[in-house]
Amino acid sequence: MGFRPQVSQDTKATVRSAAVLTTSYVAASVELDLQNWNQLVLLLDFTKGASTGFTIKLEFSDKDRLDWFQETAIGSSTIAANIATTPVYQNEYTFSETGKYALPVPVNYRYVRISSKALTAAGGTVLAIYATQGLV
Questions:
Q1: CA separation for the pair 36, 11 (Å, rounded)
Q2: Dihedral of CA 75/115/135/111: which sign?
Q3: pLDDT (tens digit, 9 = 90+) per residue, 61-82?
Q4: I need a labelling partner for 57 at 20 to 30 A (CA). Which of 8, 43, 101, 109 fits?
Q5: What's the whole-model pTM score?
Q6: 14-63 tens-digit pLDDT
């Protein structure tokens, strides 16, 4: 038996309608009722065009949508002179091929802001973003 997360098909929200990407981040936000859910599932529909790909980043807000916090990841620790250093990275997701992608993201916040941009010249590079809830 493989791992099978549950996904709510009833609450799919359009975050960004299909639109041409530029090389600057454009943000769109979505509010999902995540009560009884612990995953945000992003459904990405991408046409590569002239760009080498696209990047998205996620930011979260708990109640007021005034303060946004970018998703981060903790890297591997290194030890030098008995001092441990652990880098923290800003998460960005990069895709390089035309396709339809599902990206599950653990989340505990009510509001999510999703920013996207093309990696290089954006001619004909189109992205649509949808969001739904998931449960692991």
A1: 13
A2: positive
A3: 877 778 888 888 888 888 888 7
A4: 8
A5: 0.82
A6: 889 999 999 999 998 877 666 677 888 899 999 999 999 999 999 888 77
Distance CA 109, CA 41 (A): 13
**Backbone dihedral region of 81: left (phi > 0), alpha (psi from -120 to 50 degrees) or beta?**
left
Of the candidates 117, 128, 123, which has an alpha carbon nearest to the alpha carbon of residue 45?
A: 128
Based on its alpha-carbon atoms, the radius of gyration of the chain, rounded to whole angstroms, reads 17
Tokens of 65: 């949508």
Give the H or E element holding residue 56: strand 54-61
Q: Which residue has the tokens 């990841």?
A: 73
50: which residues sit within 8 A by CB, 6+ positions away? 120, 121, 122, 123, 124, 125
Backbone phi and psi for residue 35, each to the nearest 5 degrees, phi listed first: -60, 130
